Amino acid sequence: MQLEIRERVEGDVTVLELHGKITIGEGSVQLRDAVSRLLDADRKKIILHLEGVTYVDSSGIGELVSRYTTTKNQGGQLKLLKLTKKIKDLLMITKLLTVFEIYEDEETALASFK
Amino acid sequence: MMLAENVVEITIASQLEFIDLVTTVTDNLTQMIGFDEEACYWINMAVRESVANAIEHGNKYDPQKHVDVRFTIGVDALRVAVRDYGEGFDPSTLPDPLDPNNLLNPAGRGILYMRTFMDQVDYERRHEGGMQVTMTKRRMPKPTEEGEQKHDAIGD
Asked: Which ipTM value was assigned to this complex?
């Protein structure tokens, strides 16, 4: 499996811990499905914990953008936690760093929903 | 004396599963010829983007069409040519992913990444059909004795 997703619930926020690759094909689809399941269950406060992500390609970046807009369009919020240096570089190149809400520690990320 | 160029060629079917095979070869070659860790990572990504484009947008996952990847290790640079057998396209007509109106598009960033991580990216529509993208990454020149002496002199 390209991407392992561990789900944690912290109050009314769901933290998805991602481990592995978010690349074209399986990894991107797994992320899409995981967020869709949460939105279907009306769990619309979502943190993507990205510290364990080893590789992201343009399809993976597109999937992050897509999940962000889908969540927002449904009245929810999707925030990013603990970006790796490589993901930060990829977001910066495509001017997406300012689009996402990005946090370095989980406590602050969780508090931002209140 | 100019050394002969070494060439490595791989042909894969239009399946995403084979991208890792190509990037594994990419890593082996870039490490072998002395690119640093950072450069190896980004060259890997440029090759991944290019092969994924060839499978998805070029050959449109047609199992009858393959993707040819040709690595040419020159004394001055690594060149990676990725060729598909699709209908081809005009890269100048693609939407700019940095345009504020396109920032939230789910796709369209691959070519920008390729251009960012490689020194040169050229597109060629082949007469026989299909597109070929050739990406070039310059190799860092080894310091010459003269250069080292100059460096030492500066250090003094």
From this structure: 0.92
